[in-house]
Write a structure and sequence with these properties.
516 residues; alpha/beta; Rossmann fold; 6-stranded mixed sheet; 22% strand; globular
Length: 516
């Protein structure tokens, strides 16, 4: 059992409370997902559970971890640069438990991971592995210690569809406690049996942290139904209260009018009206107390709001891209041959394929073709946001480079609509979460009126709360979009055309292949 008691996490720099008085219990067999908007403290909480020293440099905390969770295994979002430069064997050997495993035990771990056992002893640099292989290697090093509890921070990032389905099976079949963060809604729906939700409902209000022993779909349905009922009840009470107040004001005005009109020669009527006014005032105080007990409109965290301008579009007959490549290479390595990609105005093309197939390499070739064009306005979102974002500048400076009060006010308005906290708009971009950086890039494209989007894994860092709104914005976008993605919801709900990159080129994909 893993028990968290009264956990509070506060950012040292701006004293913003990320998590407040959060308590929950996890038992063996629980598959608990942590959800919430980008920057709400999900990763910080996971780090604290594993080792509070990991957050000491930027976060104050109070609370207690208790129970007997067994050995804790923690998977970070990224492998450290020095470990990527080292060999697979050196990565594994960094865990003392690796040397105590028998060949049979190591083979069993490899079987669980569908990872070749001999690779654990390989001299191959870790950085040359695909995203899916790196996740499996990290999980392998955790399993060497026979953990009772796994803490996984974004294990689904950068995984191809085949590896995502494997990960779903791994999570579902894990016998111990498993607590994870993921932005893949399909994976969450297929694996989680407990939902931990960190919400920051409104600026200046404390965060709300809740635990729900439900699968994700049931939780969303119950939450939406509760919000709808509370909203309906609150509006009904306010409507009835408004009618009462209108009657009250009419009575009050009549008594005031009668008081003003009564003759001084009629003191008896004056005394009666004075008593009547006292009764009216008493009724008013009762109505004030009644207002305080009325059902409140629900305070819920709103998802990011994005909407591209209608003029960011292209005519359907315009040929945006007609790419022909006899070979696609990464250095000396041949990735694919005979690539043909023709894209028309307003078309949304989704490219998928296994990790390491060359999708990002292909997308880079596409952006080299399109960014210099004068007849279109194209923009590129790389997986590595540092390629395009000025990390030392603030979000306001990035969206309003020309400066000036009007431009900065406009930038702050848009940042508020994508759920930036007041403090975040003045932080250097490098301090933002991956999801906040992704929203910033899309907002810049929106403000620039871009009519061709070239996107590499655009939804990989969006929470399940913002994800549907981002998909809706991109589905309604009138321009052309060429993207690489492993997000099943995004591919089926946004893209018109799907194709898989293979060694023989791009081949069409039917939507049925992506059914969950």
């Amino acid at each position: 059992m893993l028990q968290i008691k009264h956990l509070t996490l506060t950012h040292r720099k701006d004293l913003r409370t990320l998590v407040e008085d959060f308590s929950f219990v996890l038992n063996p067999g629980d598959k608990a997902v942590v959800i919430g908007e980008e920057g709400n403290g999900k990763s910080t909480m996971l780090k604290w559970i594993y080792n509070p020293d990991l957050i000491g440099s930027y976060c104050q905390w109070s609370g207690e971890r208790s129970g007997d969770p067994g050995v804790l295994g923690y998977l970070a979002q990224d492998i450290a640069a020095e470990e990527k430069a080292g060999s697979i064997y050196e990565f594994c050997a960094a865990s003392p438990a690796f040397h105590d495993l028998t060949p049979r035990e190591l083979g069993e771990i490899a079987r669980q991971l569908r990872f070749p056992a001999e690779e654990f002893y390989s001299d191959r640099p870790v950085g040359t592995l695909s995203g899916g292989e790196q996740i499996k290697l990290q999980l392998g090093r955790l399993l060497f210690t026979r953990p009772g509890t796994l803490l996984l921070d974004e294990p689904s990032s950068d995984l191809d569809l085949e590896t995502l389905r494997w990960l779903e099976g791994f999570i579902s079949g894990y016998p111990g406690i498993l607590l994870y963060i993921s932005h893949d809604e399909a994976l969450i729906e297929n694996t989680a049996n407990l939902v931990l939700h960190i919400e920051h409902p409104r600026e200046g209000k404390p965060p709300r942290c809740t635990a729900h022993r439900l699968d994700y779909s049931a939780y969303v349905r119950r939450r939406d139904a509760g919000i709808a009922y509370q909203t309906q009840q609150a509006r009904k009470e306010r409507e009835e209260y408004g009618k009462k107040m209108e009657r009250y004001r009419r009575i009050q005005q009549k008594v005031e009018h009668d008081q003003n009109a009564v003759s001084r020669q009629d003191p008896h009527s004056g005394r009666l009206l004075k008593k009547k006014m006292h009764a009216v005032q008493s009724l008013g105080r009762r109505f004030e107390r009644e207002e305080e007990t009325m059902t409140r409109l629900p305070e819920v965290e709103q998802a990011a709001f994005l909407r591209f301008p209608p003029e960011a579009c292209l005519p359907a007959g315009k040929v945006v891209l007609d790419l022909r490549l006899e070979e696609l290479r990464a250095g000396e390595r041949l990735l694919a041959e005979n690539i043909r990609l023709r894209v028309m105005g307003g078309e949304k093309v989704g490219i998928l394929g296994p990790n390491g197939a060359g999708k990002t390499t292909l997308l880079r070739r596409v952006q080299e073709e399109l960014l210099p064009r004068r007849d279109i306005r194209a923009a590129y979102m790389s997986q590595d946001y540092a390629e395009t974002l000025p990390l030392d500048r603030t979000p306001v400076e990035y969206l309003a480079p020309e400066g000036g009060t009007a431009a900065e006010t406009r930038a702050r308005t848009f940042l508020g609509s994508i759920r930036y906290a007041r403090e975040e708009v003045s932080h250097p971009i490098r301090e933002l979460s991956g999801g906040q950086k992704a929203k910033l890039l899309l907002t810049k494209m929106m403000l620039d009126g871009v009519n061709v989007l070239i996107l590499d894994e655009p939804t990989r860092n969006f929470s399940p709360i913002s994800g549907p709104r981002v998909r809706q914005a991109l589905a309604e976008y009138g321009g052309t979009m060429i993207c690489v993605s492993h997000d099943r919801r995004f591919l089926t709900q946004v893209c018109h055309t799907l194709c898989r990159l293979t060694e023989r080129g791009l081949v069409p994909v039917e939507r049925e292949e992506l059914e969950e």
